[in-house]
């Protein structure tokens, strides 16, 4: 049973980037909420979705499956899905099962946007 409900918030950021912020516990009871938020994202060539997991307190395989499915959808459309703010524990789980090789994972949302291929906003060196 979920002790802490899940909330998701979808934002469109400057430059057309999408951000989904996830807060709470992601399990088989709450994964439909994340899937619904992910379904609202229109992936296309060059699109970027960042999922901010900074406030995620728990994630089971159902939650991971929802993110894998969205990643595959983004790739088929020519877009990119990046995960940001994984806790040390969740990062370790992703490493153990090899998902750190599957997903683009960044420490922060700002870093995810900055380091996305073709999307950096850093000024060019002279």
Mean pLDDT, as a whole number? 90
Main beta sheet strand tally, sense and closure: 5 strands, mixed
CATH superfamily: STAS domain
CATH fold naming? Transcription Regulator spoIIAA
- For this structure, what is the CATH class? Alpha Beta
Quote the beta fraction. 25-35%
Task: Give, in order, the helices and strands.
Answer: EEHEHEHEH
Number of structurally distinct domains: 1
Quickly give the structural class. alpha/beta
Task: Specify the number of helices.
Answer: 4
Strand elements, count: 5
Helix content: 25-40%
Strand order of the largest sheet: 1-2-3-4-5
| Envelope shape | globular
User: In the CATH classification, which architecture applies?
Assistant: 2-Layer Sandwich
Q: Low-confidence runs (pLDDT<50, min 5 residues)?
A: 120-126
């Amino acid at each position: 049973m979920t002790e802490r409900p899940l909330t998701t918030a979808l934002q469109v950021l400057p430059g057309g980037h999408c951000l989904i912020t996830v807060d709470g516990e992601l399990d088989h009871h709450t994964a439909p909420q994340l899937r619904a938020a992910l379904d609202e994202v229109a992936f296309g060539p060059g699109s970027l979705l960042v999922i901010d997991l900074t406030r995620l307190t728990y994630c089971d395989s159902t939650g991971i499956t929802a993110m894998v499915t969205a990643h595959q959808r983004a790739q088929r459309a020519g877009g990119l899905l990046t995960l940001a703010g994984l806790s040390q524990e969740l990062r370790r789980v992703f490493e153990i099962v090899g998902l750190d090789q599957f997903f683009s994972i960044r420490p922060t949302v700002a870093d995810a946007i900055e380091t996305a291929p073709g999307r950096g906003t850093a000024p060019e060196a002279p």
